[in-house]
Amino acid sequence: MKYLRIWPDVSWVMIALLVGSGQLMFSFPVRTIPNLVLGTASASATDSSEKTIPSTSTSPPVGWKTFVSTNLQVAVDYPKDWSVSEDKRQVTFRSEEVGVIRLAVTETGQLSPENFLNETVLPNTRCSSRINRAGITARICFDTLSGSYSADFVLKSRLLSLSMPRRGDLKVFNGMVESLRPLE
After folding, report:
1. CA nearest 158: which of 129, 141, 182, 134?
2. DSSP E strand boundaries for the chain
3. Domains plus CATH for the chain?
4. What region, left, alpha or beta, does residue 45 occupy, with left being phi > 0 and alpha being psi -120 to 50 degrees?
5. Comparing C-alpha atoms, which of 137, 163, 135 is closest to residue 150?
6. Fewest C-beta in 10 Å: which of 38, 86, 174, 179?
7. pLDDT for res 51
8. Helix, strand, coil fractions of the chain, as percent rounded to 5
9. pLDDT at 30
């Protein structure tokens, strides 16, 4: 009976020795970010540095419309078969088949939009930077838990966020990121 009480302690010591000597290794699956920009390399989930990826698109997809928001002071292209609704703080683009993409103002409190982006790191996200057709830098993030995407833009001292939940269309999201521009 006394040997049975020692066995759990002995087993932990053996496991610790095997791990320490490199004889026992654990492997965990690593999720990668699907291509943030179609046609460019994807970033690994283990890549902790932010990279700036140049835009690969020069024109909006064929057959898209342009929505102009005087409230947000931006214009953005979207698929012609999507509906659009706007209130004072956000614009919602909706497709019955695909889902929803929202463009909204993000409150930054006392921080400037740039400082907010630099100081706010959300858990379980993998981010990269990209310059769109209008020359605006977007921080694009993939949430590894929810599978959602977001793109943050600093325009006219405000932080705007374009967000798409898990079941969205990545081509549409990327097209909208590419087309977002300030009103002149």
Report:
1. 182
2. 52-54, 64-69, 74-79, 83-86, 90-95, 99-106, 125-131, 137-143, 149-155, 158-164, 181-182
3. 52-182 (3.40.1000)
4. alpha
5. 163
6. 38
7. 43
8. 20, 35, 45
9. 37
Q: How many CB atoms lie within 10 A of CB 144?
A: 16
Query: Which of these, 111, 94, 92, lies nearest to 102 by C-alpha position?
Result: 92
Give the pTM. 0.68
| DSSP code for 61 | P
E-strand stretches of 20-61:
52-54
DSSP state of 134: T
Measured CA to CA, the distance from residue 67 to residue 151 in angstroms comes to 18
The predicted structure's pLDDT at residue 137: 92
∠ CA 122-126-130, nearest 5°, is: 110
Structure confidence at residue 86 (pLDDT)? 94
DSSP character at residue 15: H
Angle CA(8)–CA(12)–CA(14) in degrees, nearest 5?
A: 115
